[in-house]
Amino acid sequence: MKDNNEQLEQILNKVHDNQISVEEAKAQLRHYDELGFAKIDLHRAQRQGFPEVIFGQGKTKEQIDQIIESLLNTNQTILVTRVNNDKAQYIINKHPQLQYHDLAQIISSPIGAIPKSNAYISVLCAGTSDLPIAEEAALTAEVMGTNVQRFYDVGVSGIHRLFEHIQDIRKGHVSIVIAGMEGALASVVGGLVDHPVYAVPTSVGYGANLNGITTLLSMINSCAPGTSVLNIDNGFGAGYNASMIINMLENK
């Protein structure tokens, strides 16, 4: 991401060369875009390293579309989370250059066109029922330019499946562990690796799982050091945090 001075110089040079008007330059330098129902933060990438992410749940498809238009007008990477199929089809029809990932319910800029980091993060999930949250984490990281290795269906009820991949998991610089039920996988992985672990409890489980509350409390009480716990079903938060670590490592 270009720093503020470089961006400013490019805009001023375009004005000087009559490539853009003064009004267009002013628009590019705005701190936010007022849409009435939302104020779109246009400088978030300069402050935090990645543009504003759109949370699709609770927004209408028309509102999501307007926010995407605002971000595209300033050449920003698009990441929209929690978008159901109906909203997604509307958005993709209007913006065919974007991609919809139905399992994760994510709309994004084309992932294949985004340069990836040399270091990678490991994304693990305990079982197939946890896949939507695992994919939300993995795709978030990939949109942010992070290389991801996936290790799925490696829960503790068949722990030999985890050990088969443990050397590759250890080569990653961060692990994201997605699990429901009692959430034991996070503690197991935390005791086997020498890098940070982000644990994400899911709402997957029978009655006493309490829609992920039991898993959350179990992960918070993990005895494995180096484990940080995200909110229930918050794959996005884990993918974002892990990518920030990789970005710091490769750009320090």
From TrEMBL:
InterPro entries: P2CMN_synthase_LarB, PurE_dom. Pfam families: AIRC. Residues 119-251 form the PurE domain. This is PurE domain-containing protein. The lineage of its organism: Bacteria, Bacillati, Bacillota, Bacilli, Bacillales.
